[in-house]
Amino acid sequence: MAAPSTPRPSLILPRASSHAHSQSSAVGPISDSAASRRRRGDFVFVVNPSGANGRTGKQWKQLLPHLRTRLADQCNICECITTGPSHAIDVTRKVIKDGADAVIAVGGDGTLHEVVNGFFCEGSPVHALDLGPDHSTTLGLIPLGTGSDFARTFGWASDPHDAIDRIVRGRKSKLDIGMMEGPNRDHFFVNVADIHLSAKAGYFASMYKRFGNLCYVFGALRGFWGHNNRDLRIKVNGGEWKTVHKVTALCIGNAKYFGGGMKITPTADPFSGSLEVVILQDFKWYDFLLKLHRLYGGTHLTVNGVSSIRAQTIEVMEVMANGDIFVQSDGEHFGFLPTKFSLLPGAVNFFC
């Protein structure tokens, strides 16, 4: 399938004018004054208008006047309205190559996941083509979607005005990024990757997004149907292969939360240089009901059948290869085992 086209993001001028653009418009010829604005740097806002059943697009339109007031004197404000799956990946790669100073994901964890993947291509970071090795593009986030689990790690409020304040302040930190290597492709994650039951539940949850956070409940119910705990083999930090018996779920956290607020990897820190791996073994459906409050509260590491380790890399495969163990990252379906997970420490500058 051919890659979708990636129209140049439209330029939002500091004041409302007849030059406002639609999602498919392109920036026209740059006048002297426009060239001056460009030298201040492009901040590209990648917006998923269909997020949260269309609320993201509406909130974005309401947010624009405030955004102009706070940022238009500091940078070139550009927008890209995504039109479908993977569009945010493609446009992020393009604007980074064009020299954007920042790319800000506007939406939920899915939009952030795609923008993060746009910072890489064929396993390597994307760079500006004409600005030299010292130029870098900063990642930002305005959480507006169904799930904002990554924002929860920092204790951020859901108010988008607070997110704009963080961007205006311009404080940056080097953010760790997770990398996944599967049989057919590489992929990146910023929040949590997971295997088996939780990944299967996430796959089904994506079919019920119209129900908001209830989609995670519906996904879990479908995931449990026909579920069997399975023996898996793991290799941590390049060591020896070990068998882990009756695995219910295995979660690799760069950050703490997934599934609509479950604090599954409670000690993970996306600035720490390591991943937290939490393994749930021999859980039955009633274990989840009895221990759900501990999973959401992040106090489950002392529960029987739960273990946690720190890792820079972990490889996971089936003992008996059937090719049916689900793998997901940041709530997005990745594929099936085997998969290698590794960390790229401080890979991306991040507004925080």
Automatic annotation (TrEMBL):
One of its GO terms (biological process) is response to cold. Residues 38-184 form the DAGKc domain. It comes from the Eukaryota. It holds the Pfam family YegS_C. GO terms for molecular function: ATP binding; kinase activity. Residues 1-34 are annotated as: Disordered. Keywords: ATP-binding, Kinase, Nucleotide-binding, Transferase. One of its GO terms (cellular component) is membrane. InterPro entries: ATP-NAD_kinase_N, Diacylglycerol/lipid_kinase, Diacylglycerol_kinase_cat_dom, Lipid_Phosphate_FormReg, NAD/diacylglycerol_kinase_sf, YegS/DAGK_C. SMART domains: DAGKc. Residues 16-26 have a biased composition (Low complexity). PROSITE patterns: DAGK. SUPFAM superfamilies: NAD kinase/diacylglycerol kinase-like. This is DAGKc domain-containing protein.
